[in-house]
């Protein structure tokens, strides 16, 4: 790491990439840095980008074009990054007319979150319970993962792995907001574990009152990730697995 570049300077490179949606050209990054009063010569910026590549934080995908390996949770540091996704679950219908994921997505939209992807996990039986809502689900843009097994429904570790797989896929392009409301207690615990270990937003919905509760809010996480990122960038052996 060039001695004259502080961890704050490296943070601004990451902020620049987040500002441009996780992908930016060399000139765009340098322009962003200049607007924020962070002076980089082309030589120093090249050296800084090379270091971030070696650490697995970014990749070069074309000549002078860089991407973040994963935007979540790192792009929570940027208030201009707006690519959020939703991860929830669908249980049996029982007395409900409207599913809990529908309520959650509506409340998140009302709170100002435009969700670019929406993934809901359930069982084949759970999906059949809501067959008459398929058109509504399609209009909302929900993608279903409908092959949860009986073993996963009973085992927290297995359920956690399933939620992690979905979150990992979404995290390279969005910041997943995890909803721990539905399905069963095993899912709730697994969703909570994934959100807390991966530093991701976590919500719970009071179904009767249609109230959204942030168990881990975006603002809270933004402060945490910013502090963690500055700490990691000051080290010589950090990697993208540290956040």
List the domain count as a whole number.
2
* Unreliable segments of 5+ consecutive residues: none
The helix tally amounts to: 10
Termini gap: 19 Å
CATH class of the largest domain: Alpha Beta
Write out the CATH superfamily name of the largest domain: Hypothetical protein VC1899 like domain (Restriction endonuclease-like)
Oligomeric form of this entry? single chain
For the biggest β-sheet, the strand order reads 6-5-4-7-8-9
Q: If you compute it from the alpha carbons, what radius of gyration comes out, rounded to the nearest whole angstrom?
A: 20 Å
* β-strand number: 9
Query: What share of the residues lie within helices?
Result: 40-55%
Q: What is the H/E order?
A: HEHHEEEHEHHEHHEHEEH
Give the name of the CATH architecture of the largest domain: 3-Layer(aba) Sandwich
Look up the CATH topology of the largest domain.
Rossmann fold
Largest sheet: 6 strands, mixed
| Shape category | elongated
Structural class: alpha/beta
Q: Strand-residue fraction? A: 15-25%
């Amino acid at each position: 790491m060039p001695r004259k570049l502080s961890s704050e300077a490296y943070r601004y490179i990451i902020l620049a990439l987040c500002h441009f949606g996780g992908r930016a050209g060399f000139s765009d990054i340098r322009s962003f840095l200049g607007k924020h009063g962070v002076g980089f010569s082309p030589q120093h910026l090249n050296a800084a980008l090379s270091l971030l590549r070696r650490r697995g934080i970014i990749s070069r995908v074309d000549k002078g074009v860089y991407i973040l390996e994963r935007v979540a949770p790192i792009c929570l540091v940027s208030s201009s990054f707006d690519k959020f996704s939703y991860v929830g679950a669908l249980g049996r219908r029982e007395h409900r007319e409207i599913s809990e994921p529908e309520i959650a997505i509506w409340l998140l939209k009302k709170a100002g979150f435009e969700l670019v992807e929406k993934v809901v996990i359930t069982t084949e039986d759970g999906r059949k319970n809501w067959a008459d809502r398929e058109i509504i689900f399609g209009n909302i843009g929900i993608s279903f993962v409908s092959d949860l097994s009986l073993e996963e429904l009973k085992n927290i570790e297995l359920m956690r792995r399933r939620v992690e797989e979905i979150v990992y896929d979404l995290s390279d392009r969005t910041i997943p907001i995890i909803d721990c409301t539905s399905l069963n207690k095993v899912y709730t615990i697994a969703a909570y574990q994934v959100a807390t270990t991966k530093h991701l937003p976590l919500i719970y919905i009071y179904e009767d009152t249609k109230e959204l509760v942030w168990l881990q809010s975006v603002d809270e996480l933004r402060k945490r990730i910013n502090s963690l990122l500055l700490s990691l960038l000051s080290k010589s052996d950090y990697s993208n697995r540290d956040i």
